[in-house]
Fold this protein.
Amino acid sequence: MADDSSAHDSATPKADGTTRRDFLTLTASAVGAVGVGAVAIPFINSMNPAADVLAQASIDVELGDIQPGSSKVVMWRGKPVFIRHRTQTEIDKLQKTPLRELPDPQTDLERFAKNPAWLVVVGVCTHLGCVPNERRGMQTDGVDGGWLCACHGSVYDGSGRIIKGPAPKNLEVPSYQFMNGNKTLRIG
Ligand code: FES
């Protein structure tokens, strides 16, 4: 019986010089590339921010209803942001605070140069992340206004600067800008 194994030999060249083995190798590579692509596209898409996250990348806050001496809390990117419309008396006092008294020295003007009348800070304590409470008027500890983090007793002044307690840093000032003739605040 004649041996026809050469007819199926994967290494036997065809007329164009390719072999069955070459064909199988190319096919496997192509299938592999498609498979990687099919996995990679959903993976890359999963790294893009979700639509609801993008929607909160920046928020606009109308300032008209926040009177001098009052505050508002808004949520931005899952965190509270304190907005306070400061009186000229508050601003004058805060701008005179000696830097040597501050654990994280920063002038009020450095923090709120865009418009000193408006305090805008992320309301997350820089100690362990609790949300501080706003204080009104002079307190028994001699500090006027500002915020108290009741978790471990950190006190922030009316500029959001740490003045007492274990928190190491001032409350963060987020990126923000005024729009519409200072009637609208865009955070983020
Ligand atoms: S988390 Fe605010 S003082 Fe500890």
